[in-house]
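G.,

No rush on this.
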Amino acid sequence: MTTLQPDEEVMEVLKEVDDPELIDVSVYDLGMVHSVAINDSDVHVTMIPTFAGCPALDIIERDVKNAVEEISWVSSCTVEFSFKHLWTTEMINDRGRQQLKKLGIAPPPKNFKEGEEWTVHCPYCDSNYTSIENVFGPTACRSILYCKECRNPFEAMKPVLQQELNAL
C-alpha cells in the first residue's frame, strides 16, 4: 500500500470537489488549484477563479474547506482566491475536457491563438458544423451553440487566453 505525502493527499481530495455549476468537473480538473501549503495540521489552498466575478466563489471556498478538513490529520483549512495569477482555459486538464463533453458542454479549443477563428465541435457528435446562437450563455464563461449535424443545442466554454489577460 502506497502512502501519500500530505500535499498529495490534499490534491487527491481536491480532485473530488466539483465546481458547483459543473457536476463531475472538479476544481482541480478546471485548473483552479494553484498551490497547497501545509504547516503542521493547517492547510492553505490558493485557488485561481475562472472569472473574477464568478458568483460561485463562496460555494467553492466552502466546499474545498469542508473537503480538506475531512482529512484525518487536518485541523483547519483556509482557502484564498488569488488574482495575481490569471486563469486560462489552457489550464483545464484532459479529464476536465472529457467531463465537460459528458455534460453537453464543448470544451474550449486547445492551443487556441489570438486572432484565430473559434471552431467549436459538438460535444454530442463531434461535428464542427455548428453555429453560435448566443454569445451569452448561462454563465460568463459559456456561449450557446447549435449543431447543424445532429440538431442539438449545446453550450461551449469560451476560450480565455493568457495573451488576452496580459493586455488587461
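When you get to it, here's the other one too:
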Amino acid sequence: MGNLARNEVMELERMLRARERVLREEIRAALLRSEEEHYRDLAGMVSDAGDESVADMLTDIELAAVDRDVGELREVEDALARLREKTYGVCVDCGEPIDYARLKARPAAVRCVPCQERRERGYAHDSTPTL
C-alpha cells in the first residue's frame, strides 16, 4: 500500500470509517426531513405560489446536499475497498505512492498531488461563460 506505515494505514482507515458513519447519518437525516417536509406540503402548509417556489428551492438545495453526500460516501466506500485489496494509497494515474499528508487531508484521494493537479488543469473550464 504505497509507502504507508501500518499505524498510518490504521489511522486512515479509522478516519474513513468515521466519515462513512457521519455521511450515512447525514443522508438518513436529510431523507427523513425531506419526507416530513413533503408530507407537510401535501397537507397544505404552502399557502401561495411564492411560498411554493421557496419550498421547491429549499427542497432542491437539500437534494443537492444529499447527492453530494452520496457521492462522497461512494468515494469513502471505494477507498475502504482499496484498503481491503491492498491498493490503497497508490495513484490511479501514475502508480506511484500517494503522500501520507495528502491522504490525511483527503483519505479517499485516488491521485497523487501532481496527477491531481494535471487532471484539474486538463478539466478546467474558462472562467468567463460564453453563449
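The longest helix spans residues 6-42. The chain has a mean pLDDT of 85.

Enjoy the weekend,
O.
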